[in-house]
Amino acid sequence: GAEVVFSVDCSKLKEHFLLGKRDFDRIYFNFPHCGRKAGVVKNRQLLARFFHSCAEVLAQEGQVHVALCNGQGGTPADQPRREWHNSWQIVAVAAGAGFILSDVHPFKAETIHGYQCTGYRSQDKSFCVEGALNHIFTRSTAPPCFTPLSCKTQLGSQEVSFQVPQVLVDKINRGFLEVNSSHPVRTIKEKLSAGLSQAFPLQDISSCLPLLHQGHPDGVCPSNIFWITLSPGEAPGTEKMPQGLADGDLCSHFGQDSDKNAQEGCPIPKQFYLRPSLLPHAQAIITKGAVSPGTLQVLSGPVFRKCRITPHSMPVFHEMLLVLAVSRGTESSWIQVLVDNINTTMNSLHQGVSGVKPSISLQEATSFGAELNDFAAFERQLGEIQHSLCVGTDPEPSGCCVGVIRTAPDELKSRELVVVSASLNLDLLAMLLCGISDWRMLWTWDRRFLRQFPEGELRLFKSFSLYPPSYVHDVSFWVPDGEEFDEVAFHSLARRVSGETVVSIELRDNFQQPGTGRRSLCYRVTFQSCDRALGCREAAEMQLRFREEIQQQLGVTLR
């Protein structure tokens, strides 16, 4: 009952089928080849034309199956694997047409009834299919469109709007922690809260925490802050502090001068920034005396920090902050109770997901130093840390820092009580528990991610984009004389220009010219997307824009 069409040009599929007979669920191309002794370049071009043609006739949820002989594809699935330049580079070629490799498995000709391979060098001869692989491609989500976005938030008693930094446009107000969300960060937060409620009375005070702080961050490097300009006419300007602000929602040890100005009714400087931590909100609660001894206060929400590009460095993540007031002298034992409870909950979660039991260790602040990840390093800027929480599994029991524990500063302590706080990075916990290797996957718009996490359930994540291609570009430039190069700003520009497709930046050379003393830096920039198709042409265009931006924004002279 099938319709068979002959002499179909694989690069012009839509010309062979009427409009109503397109939208194929499957398109199979077994062992494509240009014929005779065609080289790898010609066969790549054939695949490129084929994939572009498929994009015009494939259903939205459809698949493209391409079988290749062993080694031709150029992916790690090929054994042995050819050198990249000598392969057909099928994943990179498909990416140029908007496809990602979602699965790959052995091609077993013997399981297909009546199948015979033929056409060796355009002759009626069979060819070797031992070790051949079937590559299954699916449509990628479209490249993100970063149109300017305005966001509203509460600033004291006033609702204000501000322009969202471009790098955060696709991450602001995603609602991962909302009641109807099935995102793993919410599941982990709810499971932790349920576990902690077994040991402590719990009070969740996360609602309506403002996104903006006002003042000057004290002790925090300005390069790590997302500075914000309010929309015209909305900044408090030189007005006195509204009562809502004076009550402490937005001012903290981040800006001691702002606190003092507020108390004295002095004019407020026009400095606003996205909250890098929930700690100021906790300290505001302590200042008001709203902490009930023995009751665990829970605050949660996204926080924003400019940082370098590494696999575990996030410009935005979800923080869970636990605040507990205890009798002076008993804080050590209560900290241990808190850690033991988190440990028990994490163990049950991790074993339920992977069957592997993690170890959560409590480290003294003096025992970690250079090995701190960016999360812990930034937490140190916020104030003294007594302990760090590290999650590890064999063979790396030392683990990754996912939380810090501190006691309130002296000015917030009383004679009878000490306030203990624990800050947890929920995104890092989700990555470790669910086997997610790239933080960017937590923020993907591809529905295939959340489909793997039914509400209230954690599972090991299976990537729907296998062996994504990477593209390496170098950039070198002269640094302005007498100026310290701001590497965080350099990485932040790369994030913005590439739409978070820069996966690593490596300093390759630091050269000082004899005689003049001029300094030149050379960086290797690697582009790679974890969840969508990224072609070589798109990566090259991003690199050109990046060169223009660093010249304009950082004042460097390109070489």
- What's the total helix number? 12
| Total number of beta strands | 20
| Average of the residue pLDDT scores | 85
- In the CATH hierarchy, what is the class of the largest domain? Alpha Beta
Radius of gyration in whole Å, from Cα?
Answer: 28 Å
Looking at this structure, what is the CATH superfamily of the largest domain?
Bira Bifunctional Protein, Domain 2
Largest sheet: 7 strands, mixed
Report the sheet-strand fraction.
25-35%
Q: How many angstroms separate the termini?
A: 65 Å
Looking at the overall shape, the CATH architecture of the largest domain is 2-Layer Sandwich
Which runs of at least 5 residues are low in confidence (pLDDT < 50)?
237-269
CATH topology of the largest domain: BirA Bifunctional Protein, domain 2
Alpha-beta classification:
alpha+beta
Strand arrangement within the widest β-sheet reads 7-11-12-16-15-14-13
Basic shape = globular
**Portion in helices:** 10-25%
Which terms would index this structure?
559 residues; alpha+beta; Rossmann fold; BirA Bifunctional Protein, domain 2; Alpha-Beta Plaits; four-stranded mixed sheet; 12 helices; 24% helix; 25% strand
Overview of the structural elements:
The protein has twelve helices and 20 strands. Helix 3 (184-196) crosses helix 7 (331-354) and helix 3 (184-196) crosses helix 9. The protein is an alpha+beta fold. Mean pLDDT is 85; it is low at 237-269. It has three domains: 13-139, 3-Layer(aba) Sandwich (Rossmann fold); 149-231 and 271-355 and 423-443, BirA Bifunctional Protein, domain 2 (2-Layer Sandwich), CATH 3.30.930; 471-558, 2-Layer Sandwich (Alpha-Beta Plaits). The chain has a seven-stranded mixed beta sheet, sandwiched between helices. Strands 1-2-4-3 form a four-stranded mixed beta sheet. A four-stranded antiparallel beta sheet has the order 18-19-17-20. Strand 1, helix 1 and strand 2 (58-68) form a beta-alpha-beta unit.
